[in-house]
Amino acid sequence: MDDMNQLQALFGGTFDPVHYGHLLPVEALAEAINLERVIIMPNNVPPHRPQPEATSQQRKTMLALAINDRPLFTLDERELQRDTPSYTAETLALWRQESGPARPLAFIIGQDSLLSFPTWYRYDSILSYCHLIVCRRPGYALEMHDATHQSWLEQHLTTDARELHTLPAGKIFLAQTPWFDISATQIRQRLQQNQPCDDLLPPAVLDYIVQQGLYR
């Protein structure tokens, strides 16, 4: 049964295709901070980047195949049903509304996303809905690009993972997670050049890509 006091974390992205660089850091994160459930949410029309090559249905199927034997993850399809751009602030506002005011919620992002976070639509509202959990990347600076945003970061930072479980929202936690030098762009390029990708994504996902003739 779902415990309404349990920290629930959302992990969004284009997942075109999903790969180990998405899955393994989040699994390590879950172990480090005692996360029992991560909701993986593919978006349909990303506002800040080129449109996905695979269709919504294909990306959903690849995710379902990838997490089939990974009990940490559950799949949420709500953004795939939208035809308009998926703004994180709007999705998180709805998620908070559904969860009630007291439940601890978190949104998982990469460190590169944290550095560009102030450019996101209504970024300053997001911490009223949830915590941010940031997967660290070696070589990336931790300072924000301007002093106002650095002050915003420092105001919300916590080094105590227990706060993520006890407070409903408002904290930024920098997690030490392993970094895998894998990108969806790199996988698509390798597939176009008929190069092997076996070590980059789950076998069931690769089989599906080949079967569907994707990224050729």
**What is the CATH H-level superfamily?**
HUPs
| Mean pLDDT figure | 92
> What is the name of the CATH class?
Alpha Beta
Q: How much of the polypeptide forms β-strand, as a percent range?
A: 5-15%
Order of helices and strands: EHEHEHEHHEHEHEHH
Q: Looking across the biggest beta sheet, what order are the strands in?
A: 3-2-1-4-5-7-6
Class by SSE composition: alpha/beta
How many domains in all? 1
How many angstroms separate the termini?
43 Å
Instruction: Indicate the CATH architecture.
Output: 3-Layer(aba) Sandwich
Largest sheet: 7 strands, parallel
E-strand count: 7
Function: Catalyzes the reversible adenylation of nicotinate mononucleotide (NaMN) to nicotinic acid adenine dinucleotide (NaAD).
Protein name: Probable nicotinate-nucleotide adenylyltransferase
Pathway: Cofactor biosynthesis; NAD(+) biosynthesis; deamido-NAD(+) from nicotinate D-ribonucleotide: step 1/1
InterPro entries: Cyt_trans-like (IPR004821), NadD/NMNAT (IPR005248), Rossmann-like_a/b/a_fold (IPR014729)
